[in-house]
# Entry
Amino acid sequence: MKKLIIAGKEFNSRLFLGTGKFNSNEVMEQAIAASGTEMVTVAMKRIELDDKNDDMLKHIVRPNIQLLPNTSGVRTAEEAVFAAQMAREAFGTNWLKLEIHPDPRYLLPDSTETLKATEELVRMGFVVLPYCQADPTLCKRLEEAGAATVMPLAAPIGTNKGLQTRDFLRIIIEQSNVPVVVDAGIGAPSHAAEAMEMGAAACLVNTAIAVAGNPVEMAEAFKEAVIAGRRAYEAGLGTQAEDMTASASSPLTAFLND
Amino acid sequence: MKLVVNNKETELLQGNTVADLIKQLELPSQGIAVALHNRMVPRKQWEEQPLQEGDSLIIIKAACGG
# Structure
């Protein structure tokens, strides 16, 4: 399996993990380990002055894991730039998952603000991985602006609905010169495998693992699905027939009655 | 002096810099970021950055998120 390279950095795993919605930090830590991921997202919150003991970072920070702070909660490019500066200062990394979704119902990313913020943050030296609409034109614009990847959504965040944007993801993958990470909406290992078979560079999964009956087992299932999908892509899938006419895979010469 | 930290009124008992506030709140120096009036204050400036009565600060840290 070819290694994934983003902004010059090699990754052995093509599965990125989000850290939201886990029942406990311990389960999250085990799921991260089981997934084999080397890229883990983290959000930011205001410190509660009465509760300073809640330290989730110690469950994530490992030598082989790239922290990917997100800008969740911002509504504009200007707020995203501020959040990015805070993230770089807090976590000591210039890698950033840029997400600007002002609409609280569908959490769909604001394309105009996302492009504007990408341009500004790239100028400021950030490695920008923007969460974006599955819009091929936008993805090209983000690439031109210097985004390290594009991260188009499969379906709205946390819906587990799978590749609702399938046809557009195909176009994005075909046209992209930066890695395409399918982010949001992936709800089952089969969804991740399909995205990888299509040629996605990686998948970012959170809810499907975090809310599973057994998150650690599910993390491993996703790991295997992403590997299987990628290997299938690299091996080259057979073409689908135009209709249902069979094509024999065994010799049809009779041997019982002749 | 009285400050507003994360929307909460907070009394800074000793000193007048960001570093003094961090020390009083017993916060770790790593894994957090501080903004004064919505502008990030780099860690290396905490010792010099003076605070004034009524200043509003945001202090953030890591949280779970996707």
